[in-house]
Design brief:
By secondary structure, this protein is α/β, with parallel strands linked by helices. The chain contains six helices and seven strands; from the N terminus they run E-H-E-H-E-H-E-H-E-H-E-H-E. It has one domain: NAD(P)-binding Rossmann-like Domain (Rossmann fold). Helix 1 crosses helix 6, helix 3 packs parallel to helix 4 and helix 4 runs parallel beside helix 5. This is Short-subunit dehydrogenase.
Length: 234
């Protein structure tokens, strides 16, 4: 029986790179994004390159709790994923004391609440099955405060705290929990920045790290994985 991975926000950047890495290993793919045309392109590409796998690409805005619930139900109709990657996120720069009204709610709902509700949607079945691996895509912004990080940094600190709690809760149930704390990775959010592309990490390197962490024996787990550009943070 084939294994499956669910990656939220899977049409671009790190999410897409993780999907490509696991698809190459024969995993069925479940994913979502807000843009229907991007999802259609991803699905067509995966089915052309990996014809033996199943691909379910669903349009959903995970900043909305009701859409998270609907997405969970649609995935459960197919399978309980072996791997869950909470990757959906949004970055809006600004300072806590003067960032635009609504930034806090949007980034917390997108970056943190979506992962909370999605994890709760599958974790009881993982407990019953006594297997699973949950990844949360955090950030070095969740380790070190920096100017103009604002609510984005707050959401990533909170994500790391949630992931640590999950790790403790799920230890007895043979479910692994890993926080990926990535530095500046060249994705669409960095397009237009006046820096050479070589200064950034490659999304494929983050994906390779997720694959490596997944492949440890049942006796070991990567709890936190910090990945930075070779020359340091940007």
């Amino acid at each position: 029986m084939s294994k499956s991975i669910l990656v939220t926000g899977g049409t671009k950047g790190i999410g897409r790179a993780i999907i490509e890495r696991f698809a190459a290993e024969g995993f069925d793919i479940f994913t979502c994004a807000r843009n229907a045309s991007d999802l259609a392109e991803l699905k067509a590409s995966l089915e052309a390159n990996y014809p033996s796998i199943k691909v379910l690409a669903i349009q959903a805005d995970l900043s909305e709790k009701k859409e998270v619930s609907k997405f969970v139900d649609e995935i459960k109709a197919e399978a309980i994923p072996d791997v869950l990657v909470n990757n959906t996120g949004v970055f809006l720069p600004g300072a806590i004391h003067n960032e635009p009204e609504g930034n806090f709610e949007l980034m917390m709902q997108t970056n943190l609440y979506s992962a909370y509700y999605l994890t709760r949607g599958f974790v009881n079945e993982m407990i019953d099955r006594k297997s699973g691996h949950i990844f949360t895509m955090g950030s070095v912004a969740g380790l070190t405060a920096y100017p103009n990080g604002g609510t984005y940094a707050v959401s990533k600190w909170a994500m790391l705290g949630m992931t640590k709690c999950l790790r403790e809760e799920l230890k007895p149930h043979q479910i692994k929990v890993t926080s990926i704390l990535a530095g500046a990775t060249y994705t669409s959010s960095w397009e237009g920045v006046d820096l050479p592309i070589e200064r950034f990490m490659k999304a494929e390197d983050v994906a390779e790290s997720v694959w490596a962490a997944y492949n440890l024996s049942p006796r070991s787990v990567v709890e936190e994985l910090v990945i930075r550009p070779q020359l340091g943070d940007i």
